[in-house]
Amino acid sequence: MRTKHAIFMMLAAAVAAPALAQYVGPGAQPAVTSLKAVLDRPVDDQRAVLRGTLVKQVSSDKYIFSDGAQEIRVEIDRDVFPARQIGPTTRVEIVGEVEKDFMTSPEIDVDTLRVID
Prior knowledge:
Elements: H1 2-16, H2 35-40, E1 47-57, E2 62-66, E3 71-75, E4 91-99, E5 107-115
Parallel strand pairs: 3-5
Antiparallel strand pairs: 1-2, 1-4, 2-3, 4-5
């Protein structure tokens, strides 16, 4: 009986996995790769892939990210950080979503952070 249950659970997980994929056809929003584009025209929940540095920590999970020309506040949970130190000169790539609430500056909610060597 346990074997049947385990097989059923594995099949259910395999069938559900494709549901996590994102739509990429007509009408899909492409990921923004320019900090200038995010700041000029922020779109809530738009995917962002940006490269630059974390220049300052402003709270336990909020940082200032810079691409060298402009800056934006980013939210990075502890479990997203890699197992190495990151300083203001460490180049990183962040992937996340634009958060734009009414009457506030946009920020990026970071899902992944990768050090660029």
